[in-house]
Amino acid sequence: MSANEKLDTHQKALTINLDSTTFGSFAEIGAGQEVVRWFLVVGGASGTVAKSISAYDKEVSDDLYGSGARYVSKERLDAMLDSEWVQLLAQLAKTRGSNTRFFAFVDTMSASNYARTNDPHGWVGMRFQLQPGGEPNDILLHINLRDPSNLLQQEAIGILGVNLIYSAFYHLEKKEILFEDVIQGVEKRIEIDHVCLRGPAFEMWEQRGLVIHLVRAGLAEAVCFSSSGSPVPPSEALYKKAVVLAPGSFARVDADRAQIHKRMVATGIDHLRDELDERASSPVGFFCLSAMPLTASEPRPAISDLLKRIDALLASGFGVLLFRERELYTMIDLVNRYTAEHVRFVVGLSLLIRVFEDRYSRLDGSFLEALSRLFAQNVRIYAYPMTSKALQESIQRVGSAGWEWLENEGWVSAAHLRLAPPVGHLYDYVLASKFLVPIEIPAAQTA
Q1: C-alpha torsion angle, residues 261, 263, 265, 271 (rounded to 10)
Q2: What CA–CA distance (Å, rounded) separates 344 from 322?
Q3: What is 9-205's CATH number?
Q4: Which DSSP letter does residue 437 get?
Q5: Pairing relationship of beta strands 319-323 and 411-412 according to DSSP bridges
Q6: Do 288 and 245 meet the contact criterion of CB atoms below 8 Å apart?
Q7: CATH entry, 234-446, from 3.30.70, 3.30.1760, 1.10.8, 3.40.50
Q8: DSSP character for 56?
């Protein structure tokens, strides 16, 4: 086998089984025992598997790992890791600890149920030693299952689990590209949208940059940074919430722009709150960035550049969603996985103009399909006003044509924008139908 040839799942599981220095336990809940199954069927499992358990019953699970946490959550995963690790060392450290790298592999999954009414996702974790008697290290992943059936999802989890164990023991030096190996063979079938690394093996790793890499490498559609700055799975940030999204490139975020951005999101939240029943939970707001360049001729933003933009936006007190793609309809596709509540974009007029000028060549229905996908599920766009000067500069910078407007004390509202036919007819339609909602120019700005 050449140095560049990748092992398949069977070969990886067999390699681990034949490695006399690795030994551990498996605890899998929610999608069969597909990871340990690989080690049991390839031969030599007694060299790897100390124990395999699957606590499906909730009372049994609570008895083993404690009650109080959601069953598919990071908290439950941590409880499983702690319990399995303590038990493993208590039983085997004296007899095998001097020549064994112990590990505990755990997962808690919500694969597709019989009625297909749930969101297939889960948490996967591994605690391991790099040398006998060494300090433990943790890799925790949140994954989304994209296969259409429970059976296929179980299969994909099995492959990913073997990849993770193999990569932890043999490929840890790869750092940023480690998770391309973890997802080998299940690309497009599983997304990794959150990573948490703990232990001495990861002291020099830039974990926030690694989360961004998940999007840039195509392993996730989006990742999320909470308002506190910590990465969290998008599902946790968006689940069953009314959402205001503020998309943009945010390439330049000085003090003045930062205030405008913060005011835009806050205004969008106020407008959406007015639409909701008074008993509804308050909407949440996120800035939205794309890992793709603004135009095809530009290079992709570097991880360091994206981190700089994210940190500047987080200073506003709102969270940030980093998407793989930049089109608004792709952002809606992701958000609608996790919420059926109202979703509102709040955009400046310059971005609104780009929405209507993009030809969406990747879609068979081009611009019309993009509009229909954007507004299909309780989505509206709040259009934030701009000064006439800023709008004119933006239009000249990107080479837009055919737009006219009326001013109000130097300000322009979406209600006063006009575009030449035929696309202008579509603009007038979304405006009249209230898919596009102009935000009024604040009196303080026209005084």
Answers
A1: -150
A2: 17
A3: 3.90.950.20
A4: E
A5: unpaired
A6: yes
A7: 3.40.50
A8: -
pTM for the structure as a whole: 0.93
Domain ranges of the chain: 9-205, 234-446
Residue type, 386: M
In which region does residue 138 sit, left (phi positive, over 0), alpha (psi from -120 to 50) or beta (all else)?
beta
Asked if 215 contacts 322 with a C-beta cutoff of 8 angstroms, the reply is yes
Q: Can you read off the two tokens belonging to residue 330?
A: 């792709």
Cα angle, residue 121 at apex, residues 116 and 123 outer, rounded to 5°: 150
- Within 131-254, residue ranges assigned H as helices are 150-170, 178-182, 207-216, 234-238
Edge to edge, the sheet with strand 49-53 lists 49-53, 22-29, 101-110, 121-128, 137-145, 190-198
Residue-wise pLDDT tens for the chain (447 aa)?
A: 444 578 999 999 999 999 999 999 999 998 889 999 999 999 999 999 999 999 888 899 999 999 877 899 999 999 999 999 999 999 999 999 999 999 999 999 999 887 778 889 999 999 999 999 999 999 999 999 999 999 999 999 999 999 999 999 999 998 878 999 999 999 999 999 999 999 999 999 999 999 999 999 999 999 999 999 999 999 999 999 999 999 999 988 788 888 889 999 999 999 999 999 887 888 999 999 999 988 778 899 999 999 999 999 999 999 999 999 999 999 999 999 999 999 999 999 999 999 998 889 889 999 999 999 999 878 999 999 999 998 998 888 877 788 999 988 899 999 999 999 999 999 999 999 999 999 987 664 544
